[in-house]
Amino acid sequence: MKVLIPQDIREAGKNYLKERGYTVVIGSGFDAATIKREIADADAVIMRTALYPADVIAAGKKLKVMARYGVGLDNVDVAAAEKQGVYVTVAKNCNLYSVAEHAIMLMLTLARSQVYVDRESRKGAWGLRNSHSIFEMRGKTLGIVGLGAIGRQTARMAHNGLEMTIVGFDPYADASKLPAYITLAGFEELLKTADVISLHIPYTPETRYMFNATTLKMMKPSAYLINCGRGGIINEDDLYAALKNNTIAGAGLDVFEQEPVDLSNKLLTLDNFTISPHNAGLTVEAADAMAVSAAQAVDDVLHGREPMYPVNNPKKA
Question: In the annotation, is 230 catalytic?
């Protein structure tokens, strides 16, 4: 049976499949036309960031399972897959620690002005040590927007490791199942009280531009905004204005509305902005775990077993 991988994954996942007798095919491209051509005779596909709308899925006449290398689903038409009788699965919890650590890293990078300090120190600006313009996080309030597994892990690291106070906003959270150190708050209350806000929510019509000129103005002027969730949750033009005008103190983004980021993006000109290339969840450990998880999902479905983390129910289609 053929497993198509349009965008390559770690060897651990490919080896898992090869050891079980699958034909693993690395795609020759991940544009729609190429995927349509190469998915035609595939029994399974492992997805990364390429787009899988209904017409691409329909080209997979033999397709039984589409396994996501990660957890984001904004690039795949899950309903179309279900209608066609195709499982869609995610690699749940594989990058839990990786993304949470990255969010903490971006927060500390901003609090210590590390990008600027590193650059200027290399020029010999040793006097920066006496500028008293960097901050510790102990005693500060971290606002978590989205209390799924990654949001909760970020809260745990910040509370246990940095002694931060944690407030959270999630309309779907069950307060009885949250640790005692997370206090639920309304969205506006979180905006007004948090020293750092970290986003861990999916991109949906409801969350599009959730952070805009109006909501950014509700934040503390000393606050930092971190996004390791999805692009499109923040209006980047409004964020640029807020950073440029010191409406907020800084921002660190791992995800953007357009990826790769256009080098003309005005955010890239700011010293109170730090960037990473959507790699928060791509440590060696997380990448290996996601690759194996996706491969296991493929193997489960193609052998008639229920996959561990399905997001649809093709049996009812």
Answer: yes
